[in-house]
Amino acid sequence: MSEPRESMRRIVVAGGGQVGVLAAIGLRRALPNCEVVVIGLPPDRAAFADHSATALPFTNKLHDRLGIEETQLVLAAGGSHRLALRYFGWGGEGQHGTMPYGGTADPALQTRFAQQWGGGPRNIAGERPAGSLAEVLADAGRFAPPPPDTDTPLSQVEYALRWNPPAYRDLLIGLAQQMRVAHVQGRIAAIEPDGRGGVAAVAIEGQGRIEADLFVDCSGCGAVIASALSEFVAIDWDDTLPVRRVLLAPPGQAMLALEDRVSLLADGWLSEQAGRDGLQAVLAVGEGVSDEAAARALRSEPLAVIPVSPGCAREPWIGNVVALGDAAARFEPLGFLNLDLAHRQLALLLEMLPGREIVPLERAEYNRRAGLMFDTVRDTLALHYASPRARDVFPGIEPPDAVRVALDQYVRRGRLPFREEAPLLKQEQMELLAALGFAQGQAPQHRTMDPREMEAAQAEFGAKAKAALEFAPPYDRWMASVLQPKA
Fold this sequence. Notes:
Blueprint: E1 10-14, H1 18-30, E2 35-40, H2 48-51, H3 58-65, H4 70-76, E3 80-82, E4 84-88, E5 96-100, H5 107-117, H6 133-140, E6 160-162, H7 165-178, E7 182-185, E8 188-193, E9 199-204, E10 208-211, E11 214-217, E12 234-236, E13 245-248, E14 259-264, E15 268-273, E16 280-285, H8 291-298, E17 304-307, E18 311-313, E19 317-318, E20 321-323, E21 329-330, H9 338-351, H10 360-385, H11 390-393, H12 401-413, H13 426-435, H14 451-471, H15 475-483
Parallel strand pairs: 1-2, 1-11, 2-7, 4-14, 11-20
Antiparallel strand pairs: 3-6, 4-5, 8-9, 9-10, 12-18, 13-16, 13-17, 14-15, 15-16, 18-21, 19-20
Helix pairs in contact: 1-7, 1-9, 5-14, 6-14, 9-10
């Protein structure tokens, strides 16, 4: 008979940003009898995951799992909703497209779009119609989060949340304090190895020595604890991802919108994220772009200029040290993937939490799956730089082999290969490629599909869209009702 494993007694989380605090909450909830200590290291300004004001729909599920209510984020952290991401100019001057979350569910409807608005002789003029309820709602400016326990015309609509990062972090800190997560402020003065490839203890300036069974490094790009291990190796993504600097604009006017935008300009890409506390604009440029040209593209003097050196850890879990967030992978904030990756890593760690004695096979499986996450994020970003116009704005970048295969299959056959641990759903990936200006091909079996089947799918979607629009209130009116003080 197998004996129960001895549980961990103490876990140390290095980093008091939003990634570290959420990790501490998740670990404490998963192991209520284990002491969890957060070391509040000074923030790393280049840690995009720690400073991100949004993530992808996966985060909503993680929040639910950890007891963080969406209403709290709206009321206490400036929360708002995003249904779609608009792309401008990636396929050429004047081209634009939309990547809604969730995508189109009906293959027949997708086939109709591929036939009529894809490449080849059947291409027709005009705007491609909305292919998902999320896009329909974003176009109309109508939405309200569907109730979890009632089926409504909005129940299948996927969405992402935005927030004010300092307020979001404060909300997480309050929850961590309620759960009796300990906090120690100070720099790490020394790291004591355990003789088995991991760490026995860390020494905090002015605080003394802290031992732990597991160390979770959320310290940002420097990976303060993980990088001290001899087996920690960083993989360079410079040949695949061309961005070398990210410029942050001062906050603009407050804006309620159900979409965010990414535009490809002559000098780089410009991301514009709506928010109740101001529009956030971020410009990313490659080598050779002058400060003056970057400021013109940003349309303001930047608040900060952050150098980018993209890459990831070859193995994010070494010994008893796990690197999360920017400590594990660092890259430009394109498509809001930074915090999504950190949250998916955290969910994987919670799924595979070890006992006090770590089994090497568990660690190897975590590293395998986390490595797939890193690869698919890199390749999702690389899809952007392989788009028709991006090859001119960012010349000399060769896409990874997996990206070449995906584009070949999409353009020739209208399909995409399966990728494990991908950040986007298969349909979201296809919508992304269309938004970036790639023409979708058709699988042979779809070329002779009965037009009546496609027309029926179009009619069914139209009925669903009509019901969703009638059910959803104007988003600004819904938000005002939520924020109105209760009598």
